Amino acid sequence: MKPSLEQEARKLQKELTDHSHRYHVMDDPIISDGEYDRLLARLVEIETRYPELSVADSPTKRVGAPPLAAFESAAHSIPMLSLDNAFGDEDVKAFHERNIKNLDFDKIFYTAEPKLDGVAVELTYENGMLTRATTRGDGFMGEVITENVRTIPSVPLRLQKTQAGVPELLEVRGEIIITHKDFERLNKTRLEKGEAVFANPRNAAAGSLRQLDSRITATRPLRIFVYGVGQVVGMAFETQAGMLAALKNFGFPVNEHIQTHISLKEVLDFYRRLAEIRSNLDYEIDGMVIKVDRLDLQQALGEKIKSPRWAIAYKFAAVQATTLIQDIIVQVGRTGTLTPVAILEPVNVGGVMVSRATLHNADEIRRKDIRVGDTALVVRAGDVIPKVVKIIESARKGNERPFEMPDTCPVCNSRVRRVEDEAAVKCINIACRAQLTERIKHFVSKKGFDMDGLGKKIVDQLVNEGLLSSFADLFTLDRQRLSELDRQAEKSAANLIAAIEGSKQISFSRFIFALGIDHTGENAARLLARQFETLDALMGADKQQLENIHGMGETTAAAVVRFFENQENRTILQQILAAGVMIHNDLFAKKIDATHPLSGKTLVLTGTLETLTRNDAKKHLEALGAKVTSSVSARTDFLVAGRDAGSKLKKAQDLGVVILDEAQLIGILHD
Ligand code: D41
After folding, report:
1. Distance in angstroms (rounded) separating the CA atoms of residues 515 and 510
2. I need a surface site. Which of 87, 324, 472, 489 has the fewest CB within 10 A?
3. H runs (alpha helix) in 447-521
4. Which of 208-222, 475-489, 643-657 has the largest mean confidence?
5. Which residue lies with its CA nearest to atom 4 of ligand 1?
6. pLDDT for the residue numbered 318
7. Cα 666 from Cα 97, distance rounded (Å)
8. Using CA atoms, how far apart are residues 141 and 130, in angstroms rounded to an integer?
9. Which of 115, 293, 307 to mutate to test the pocket of ligand 1 (most atoms within 8 A of CB)?
10. Do residues 206 and 232 lie in contact, with contact meaning Cβ atoms separated by under 8 Å?
């Protein structure tokens, strides 16, 4: 090969990367599309003839790779939190006041960003090279979609060098979108080809990223805008504005409508302006994200389990309607909290019939002066429970009745108590049937023990008949008595018992969730299962240990300790275990033991494993600090050969890689 060819390849790689960045990120091309295509064709020709001249970040690498069998999932090193919503200026002002109070500092400035309606992703750059891309998933775990993301022209395959250099590790977060124009064009071609059209740009973006064949993704007009970082090693930022500027310098598209370092008033003004220009934008936005600009203040404010305290999403007005409040009733929840609920004259709100809306608590009712007989403005935003925003004062006739929170529980009649520092009023009678019923419904629900067939009606009935007085009773329900209950035929009694029996194998996180500990939802349950291997370990934890868990708040920590201190709860737990409930814990993150023989080693798994699934084996190995890769090379330390191992086994033998069978692997895992 002529040395000049290598020079030509390097020059083309660099120039094409620049032109692509100018076109897709800066929207400022300096050569024609035809010229670009000609240069690219030349580079493809050289790299095809001399593959050794290709590089990982060559512009030729954006065409897609051979299809995957399935997406792998991967944990985010720092959870990708979601955002609390604000629906009006009052909510944003309250957010600001809370920040001032919590920080004891009133010169707080914000960054306000359009809230793009796309697919949230995280891109990992190691020493400047794109090495992984994942979806947000549930915030803790996402799917690995690196090959798909590599095809997106506005995603840099390598960070542009800046004065500050390139960080060792940079996790960048952003939103992948399709513009309206591209969406129309995409649907038009799909229609012509007789393919199903996408409902909206968001679905089209999500569907395009869910392709196992990245060559298909490569044909979709995806774009990215980035708005934040996850883990960063080797670089520090001081403000959100500075971080966005740095990301821009690294070559990422950052939305042009972001306002940095602005006051509360400017935030609210900008919201109106954004609402005005919304319809002129070529992409969908559903609101604005407001972030405290200084990162040290962000850190001081901290985060709740699911969302940071330093940011809020101010959504554009949701669909709304006005209707009559026929009545206000009081519901008793699982933890005894009394919640006032408005019974509405049924009304269509953006296509959904709404007949109830939560009123949250007595303070909220007083603040909004909500009365029975009022005409109310009701909103429904996406998946949020309908909410009464305000009442229409001009519609008042004078016969509206103010609401008073009862001072006794509507179910058990015992006196209620107002929780200190909270707006909540609670029934503190632990024997209250309403709480028991709600707790059991929660226990058997899909995200808990998932006892199929044990619906709300049956739980109500079982509690009313005195057949259930704690969770533990579920496991000793007697088929005879069950079938004697009203409407409870023999067959469905048998099905119920089978469902209960089948639920006895349960993961630790679902088990914790099912217990319905105050302030401990799905996410907190997962955090706990990640940290504690067994129920005993969790029960033995003190408040400090719990608070030290990243993402766990003080309130949850205190509630967990209180729950396990309670002797009655401990007795019920013993009964549940005695009834044969078996807890397994896959989430527990074993502390990596650097002395383990597999720690730091690279393994390849091939062939069919009989005892472990490949996925389980991988999880176990990774928990020990080993790396599991898919192809055998000189860097492979061990090949685990299952039944019918083929070419990988042969290659490993040729390279002299140490070969283990499944039994040997299991043996070492247990070392
Ligand atoms: O444009 C967006 N969709 C956007 C989403 C944005 N501009 N900023 C965001 N910031 C965050 C925090 C403050 C938690 C880092 C977000 C999101 N989160 C987000 N996207 C999906 C869930 C949360």
Report:
1. 9
2. 489
3. 456-464, 479-484, 490-502, 508-515
4. 208-222
5. 115
6. 66
7. 57
8. 19
9. 115
10. no
Residue 245 has pLDDT above 60, yes or no: yes
Taken as a whole, the chain contains a residue count of 671
Average pLDDT over residues 565-589: 90
Q: State phi, psi for 115 to the nearest 5 degrees.
A: -90, 105
Phi, psi at 169, each rounded to 5° = -135, 130
Å from CA of 82 to ligand 1 middle:
7
The mean per-residue pLDDT over the stretch 624-631 comes to: 82
Which two tokens mark 455? Answer: 């619906």
**HEC secondary structure over 152-185:** CCCCCCECCCCCCCCCCEEEEEEEEECCHHHHHH
**pLDDT winner (highest mean) among 227-236, 317-326, 377-386:** 227-236
295-302 average pLDDT score: 96
Residue 383 has pLDDT above 50, yes or no: no
Marked catalytic residue, from 61, 115, 291, 441: 115
What would the pLDDT profile of 248-296 be if each residue is shown by its tens digit? 999 999 999 999 999 999 999 999 999 888 878 899 898 999 999 999 9
CA-nearest of 581, 45, 116 to 313 is 116
CA of 224 to the centre of ligand 1 (A): 13
The string of pLDDT tens digits covering residues 303-355 is: 988 899 999 999 887 667 889 999 999 999 888 899 999 999 988 775 567 88
* Distance from Cα 584 to the centre of ligand 1, integer Å: 34
- Which residue from 121, 289, 307 has its CB within 8 A of the most atoms of ligand 1, so it is best to mutate? 289
Query: Whose Cα sits closest to atom 13 in ligand 1?
Result: 311
**Which residue ranges form the domains of the chain, and what is each CATH number?**
3-63 (1.10.287.610), 85-315 (3.30.470.30), 320-418 (2.40.50.140), 433-584 (1.10.150.20), 602-669 (3.40.50.10190)
- 85 Cα to the center of ligand 1, angstroms: 11
Give me the pLDDT at residue 351, please: 57
What does the pLDDT look like over 444-468, one tens digit per residue? 998 899 998 888 888 988 888 888 9
Question: Is the dihedral angle over the CA atoms 465, 470, 475, 476 positive or is it negative?
Answer: negative
Nearest CA owner, ligand 1 atom 14: 81
Residue 591: pLDDT above 70?
Answer: no
Alpha-carbon distance of 316 to 279, in angstroms, equals: 12
Residue with CA nearest ligand 1 atom 5: 115
Residues with CB under 6 Å of ligand 1 are 81-83, 113, 115-116, 120, 136, 175, 227-228, 289, 291, 308, 311
Q: How far is the CA of 250 from the centre of ligand 1 (A)?
A: 20
Residue 242 C-alpha from the chain's centroid: 26
Which comes out higher in pLDDT, residue 406 or 623? 406
Residue 161: φ, ψ to 5°: -70, 140
Which ligand 1 atom minimizes the distance to the CA of 81?
A: 14
To the query of whether residue 306 is one of the catalytic residues in this protein, the response is no
| pLDDT tens, position by position, 163-193 | 889 999 999 999 999 998 999 899 889 888 8
Q: How large is the C-alpha radius of gyration of the chain?
A: 29
Q: pLDDT of 93-136, one tens digit each?
A: 999 999 999 999 999 999 999 999 999 999 999 999 999 999 99
Which of 83, 255, 259 has most ligand 1 atoms within 8 Å of its beta carbon, as the pocket-test mutant? 83
How much distance in Å is there from the Cα of 513 to the middle of ligand 1? 26
Distance CA(116)–CA(104), nearest Å, equals 32
